[in-house]
Specification:
25% of the residues lie in helices and 28% in strands. It is built from 20 helices and 40 strands. The strands form eleven sheets. Strands 28-31-32-36-35-34-33 form a seven-stranded mixed beta sheet, with helices on both faces. The N and C termini lie far apart (88 Å).
Length: 789
């Protein structure tokens, strides 16, 4: 927000310079981004009157003007402005003047005619980005007065960056309240007295959605002066606040908004049909807006409509059909309070960020509409005249926001701030902040925030206000004292830091991606799962909550590949959202070569088993034993022939595999990434390995080479063997799988090493042979296994 320092000091004028004033506001939470001059440096520019203007004899576009600058004799100035004419007051740069850009004015001869000065356009003085013709001043501008003094250009523009909770400071009045409280000063009190009606004309108003619009005021004003001009002082204040002057009525609406913080709107009364209804938009209803665009409205959008069409999107922007123009003679003035929540959602949906919506979505004082209506009425009578009708006020007290009663204890204030604050000083602060003391009991108070402070809802909010007025820099910085506490860390439970350390040891780098993603990416990676959709997303690319870490990992992979980073090993640990549940997951991605480029190693692209090795390293942190199984999987984001799922006690622990070729093509990836994702909640439920004493007795190994059908998974053979030999099998090793020459078609050879060991005695050959025979018979029966010669 931009505001004029001169204008602000009319409301409250602390005895400090501009820099100190900016520091005060910043320390109070209203961060001042910049202080810039209201106008660039120039000198010797005065107010002049064009007494006569005649055509230049040798140039069609030039005129010779006789200009009175309040001194003896008049100046002859050649001017190219199309609007140069007798009888108007103008800005005259005298000989010797220096304009912005170090442009010096000298005596000159233009097409054979002497010119003693220059008639300036607003752009040439740095007062506008564009201008058509020379600058015209108001008829009452005093001739000969320095233009900088007349327009009060020796001013500063203060640019303030407000946090979303301080909508009450989006006005001169709001910032002045803060300065007055900080400096213990009084503030300008404008008498916003009721502007009496002189005609009884009203316009029918109906509010159908009182929840979205608890208060709506309107007033008919007839017979305004269509030839009236916006006073230059108002134009200048609007310019310094970043608003362009358009029309006296519109300018007054903008001025009151800047002054008090209440957005207003004016309709051309003669363009409205029948009555006004504040309602939700109809299905497929459209509106042509003031900025020229046409929108199709959602049924949830609140509109101001006449009997024919929607004439404005409530609190955001007016419609073109009922806009005020140079021909407007009668207006309907609107001042309303709209729901804070509604406006933020609607403005972002349509991509409309207006001065009005910016204020309404941060909260406008519900008691302000009538005050602003009267202030605007007063200025309209002064500038454009007309006849005022009575104010129509439709208010629903049950839906207007109510400020809660808050109990504040002095001991809590001192405990949280760490300083002593006298009760009398606190009460003075409450008064300065317009906080009402409802009751007082010893050293505690029942307080009620003013209607314009939507951010004061709990005791801590009021304590923060006290800190602001005391001054954050006045609160001493004391060393923190924390008693030593030892948090137990179970050695029997896996923690997330072990996962991170293991992956980093294997050359992975940790990344962090957003928890909300593009809905299209969600559909690519998890089309069968419903994502939690955000009611108010920051952008459409962040519309749903992620159900998997893979979209973020692949997006980062895509970003790096586009920047010549071909070898990628990344992982992420974070929450994923499934319905109303959130689960902590660990995911990883590898792409490119197995090793970094070097002379002694050929470039070998990563494959499924490289990633499987990394995942098994994670699993080795836990003692999963027979509880964990690898199974072929069919995941929509993974290659159907290069993917697997990890199943733990009947529950899916995670997935691993190559990215699906369909996604490779749609995402335009030149290398196939391999991904894994594990549910950490399930992973940490696996017991960690525990100490067991080594057996004193020797181990014996038997190797079996078996012929089995290719469709039999090796894991099935493992499970069956471990089931049969649970008591004395120390280890099971698969050391060869072969399906080449001398192996029947459709078959494969699987070689397994069985290591037997008993902790209490030595096993003899007869026992081991019996166990091996038992296993072979079971495998022959269940899987038609035959031993290979």
């Amino acid at each position: 927000m931009k505001l004029s320092e001169h204008w602000l000091r009319e409301w409250v004028n602390p005895p400090i310079n501009s820099k100190a004033l900016a520091e005060q506001l910043t320390m109070a939470g209203l961060e001042v981004d910049a202080i810039v001059p209201a106008a660039p440096a120039f000198n010797k520019v005065v107010v002049g009157l064009i007494k006569a203007a005649r055509q230049h004899p040798d140039a069609d576009r030039l005129r010779i003007c006789t200009v009175d600058i309040g001194q003896a004799g008049s100046l002859e100035i050649v001017c190219g402005g199309a609007n140069a004419r007798a009888g108007i007051k103008v800005a005259v740069a005298l000989v010797g003047a220096v304009l912005p850009g170090d442009f010096k004015i000298k005596e000159s001869k233009i097409r054979g005619v002497d010119s003693s000065g220059m008639l300036c356009a607003s752009k040439e003085l740095g007062l506008a980005e564009e201008s058509n013709g020379i600058m015209e001043l108001l008829p009452d501008a005093p001739i000969g007065v320095d233009l900088r003094d007349y327009l009060k250009l020796d001013d500063q523009i203060i640019e303030i960056e407000l946090t979303p909770n301080r909508g009450d400071c989006l006005s001169i009045q709001g910032v002045a309240r803060e300065l007055a409280a900080i400096n213990h000063l009084g503030m300008l009190k404008i008498d916003f007295k009721e502007q009496a009606a002189v005609i009884q004309d009203t316009f029918p108003i109906t509010v159908e959605n009182a929840k979205a619009c608890p208060r709506y005021l309107a007033r008919v004003i007839r017979g305004i002066n269509t030839a009236a001009l916006t006073p230059l002082w108002m134009q200048e204040r609007l310019r310094r606040s970043g608003i362009r002057s358009i029309h006296p009525v519109v300018d007054i609406m903008n001025y009151v908004m800047l002054e008090l913080g209440q957005p207003l709107h004016a309709f051309d009364l003669n363009k409205l049909q029948g009555s006004i209804t504040v309602r939700n938009a109809h299905e497929s209803e459209t509106i042509a807006l003031l900025d020229g665009q046409s929108l199709e409205l959602k049924p949830s959008t609140l509109v101001i409509a006449d009997e024919k069409n929607a004439q404005a999107i409530a609190g955001i922007m007016g419609g073109l059909d009922s806009s005020v123009t140079a021909e407007t003679q009668d207006i309907l003035l609107e001042s309303a309070f709209f729901s804070q929540t509604l406006l933020g959602v609607e403005a972002r949906h349509y991509g409309l960020q207006t001065d009005a919506s910016y204020r309404f979505e941060r909260g406008v004082d519900p008691e302000l509409p009538r005050v602003a209506m009267n202030r605007a009425s007063e200025l309209l009578m002064q500038i454009v005249g007309g006849k005022l009708g009575p104010i129509t006020d439709i208010s629903d007290q049950s839906t207007l926001p109510q400020r809660p009663l808050i109990n504040l204890v002095l001991a809590d204030v001192q405990r949280l701030l760490g300083i002593e604050v006298a009760a009398e000083k606190l009460e003075a602060m409450f008064q300065a902040l317009s906080i009402q003391i409802i009751s007082k009991d010893k050293l505690q108070w029942t307080l009620k925030a003013p209607t314009f402070r939507f951010d004061l809802n709990i005791p801590a909010d009021f304590i923060e206000e006290i800190a602001r007025l005391v001054g954050y820099d006045q609160i001493p910085a004391l060393p923190e004292y924390y008693p030593a506490r030892f948090v137990s860390d179970s050695a029997c439970e896996l923690n997330i830091s072990q996962i991170s350390k293991t992956l980093m040891d294997r050359a992975y780098q940790e990344v962090i991606s957003y928890s909300f993603i593009n809905s299209e990416w969600h559909t690519l990676f998890n089309p069968h799962q419903t994502a939690l959709r955000l009611a108010n997303p920051l952008t459409q690319d962040m519309a749903v909550m992620r159900t998997s870490l893979w979209p973020g990992l692949v997006s980062i992979c895509q970003y790096n590949l586009a920047r010549q980073c071909d070898r990628i090993r990344i992982f992420e640990k974070g929450l994923c959202f499934e319905g109303d549940q959130q689960r902590l997951k660990v995911g990883g991605l590898i792409s490119g070569n197995v090793f970094k480029e070097q002379w002694g190693q050929k470039s070998t692209p990563v494959d499924f088993f490289d990633l499987k090795s990394d995942v098994e390293a994670l699993l080795s942190l836990s003692h999963y034993g027979n509880e964990l199984q690898w199974k072929a999987a069919d995941h929509p984001a993974l290659h159907p022939g290069q993917s697997a799922e990890l199943v733990l006690q009947g529950k899916v622990l995670g997935y691993i595999g190559a990215l699906h070729p369909r996604l490779l093509q749609s995402l335009d990836l030149k290398h196939t990434p391999y991904l894994f994702e594990l549910d950490f909640e399930l992973l940490k439920s696996i017991k960690l390995g525990r100490y067991a004493p080594l057996s004193k007795f020797p181990a014996t190994r038997r190797d079996l080479a078996m012929i089995v059908n290719k469709d039999i998974q090796v894991a099935q053979l493992q499970d069956k063997i471990q089931e049969e030999l649970a008591e004395c099998l120390n280890n099971l090793i698969i050391f060869d799988i072969y399906d080449g020459q001398n192996i029947e078609a459709g078959k494969k050879s699987v070689a397994i090493g069985l290591v037997f060991q008993d902790p209490s005695r030595s096993l003899v050959d007869e026992e081991i042979n019996a166990l091996v025979s038992k296993v072979i018979k079971r495998l022959e029966k269940d899987y038609n296994v035959t031993l290979r010669n």
